[in-house]
Amino acid sequence: MEPMIEIRNLEKSFCGEILFQDISLDIRRGEIVGFTGENGCGKSVLFKMICGLISADRGTIRVLGTRVTDGKFPGSIGIMLDGTGFIPYYTGFQNLKNIAVIDRKISDQKIQESMTLVGLDYKSRKPVKKYSLGMKQRLGLAMALMEDPELLLLDEPMNALDKDMVCKIRTLLMQLNREKGVTVLITSHNERDIELLCTQVYEISGHRLKKIRG
Questions:
Q1: 0.85 cut: is pTM over it?
Q2: What is the C-alpha separation between 50 and 54, in angstroms, rounded?
Q3: I need a labelling partner for 69 at 20 to 30 A (CA). Which of 89, 122, 127, 209 fits?
Q4: CA quadruple 164, 167, 173, 178: dihedral positive or negative?
Q5: Residues whose CB is less than 8 angstroms from the CB of residue 43 and which lie 6 or more positions away in sequence, other chains included
């Protein structure tokens, strides 16, 4: 079966500093894959390359059989990146609605369902500028979920969430994986997230990927 993600001979540098050097990786459909490593090792950069937000210096990435090129967003993929920006004076629902109208594939009902899944009130008139950091995190997760993607890329999704919500999000991700076959890539500084969720784990170290589980 064709891999969900296929990476070959990938290299990337920033300002003369090497982040990745000749890395290759296959991720099968239906896996939950964790990525660990020190701050600045390139976890977020790798995710941005997989979803086409930035380009590699060398090598290829294929997602769902299609080669990813700079600025070309792969289909059926939901992304939650650290520092996702929202319009501060719009409500959470209005922010997601603005994103949904781009492709016109996401109904108001689906937005409402996605917000409810992560514990947000879609009827709230509170603007995002008054959201706590944890609420903004949950809104970013709702954005990633609202198109029912086959692939989720989640960069530190548990940041700023309280203990109860962390448990709920872990359960949600496992349900999406088990019941819908969603493939999940996740970074987390919380070893417990990685331990409970992931079927495979890679450590980014020395510009390379080292498989430490799976």
A1: yes
A2: 8
A3: 209
A4: negative
A5: 35, 36, 37, 155, 187, 204
Structure tokens at 208: 């390379």
* Six-digit token string for 180: 């819908």
